[in-house]
User: What shape does this take?
Amino acid sequence: MADEKRRCVVLGGGPITARELELLRADDIVWAADAGLLAARRAGLRPALCLGDWDSCPRPDDAAELIVLPTEKDDTDTHHAARLLIERGFDEALLLGCIGGRLDHTLANLATLLFLTRAGVRAWMVGGGAEVTALENGTLLLPRRPDCYLSLFAADGTARGVSLAGTKYPLSEAELTADFPVGVSNEITAPQARVTVRAGALFVALCRRENAG
Assistant: This one.
């Protein structure tokens, strides 16, 4: 398909900074989920697709492609976009405007991040000074980021065989559970960190030090 091997950037309705918009690449395909269209317009972007139930943003009349979703539905606008980008063959996704607004929306978007990962899409969610991805039954390599803390969280129950190398606090075949945040506020000390989980899923977060609470 035409979209294969290209990245889909989904703009959600939460805050999106100019710094985050600088992450867009020239060959990205940009979609707007409902109020994400407002951020697109502020940035001078014309999304290739606008979708949503249009309860928080006026429905556009000049969209290149428009999908109108029912207000009463099981999935969020962002999750619908995630399902669609999988169907259209994208293998990489960037979600902006999906952190830092309503807490329930942020939690829903984290679930969407895990959904994309399980479908084979390498997805990152960026916002609020954080960069988050999900990892299931595999290994992720991360370059050193002196400006960020590295944190790991069990994404779906218990994550087993968690190993972490190249960090201030390494792990070897550890078990992370959803009710004890032992993986928070680590640091990458080597040129590259290696995160591995043998069984289960993790949320892997890089959070800027300036946002430490």
Summary: DSSP finds four helices and eleven strands in the chain. The first helix runs from residue 18 to 21.
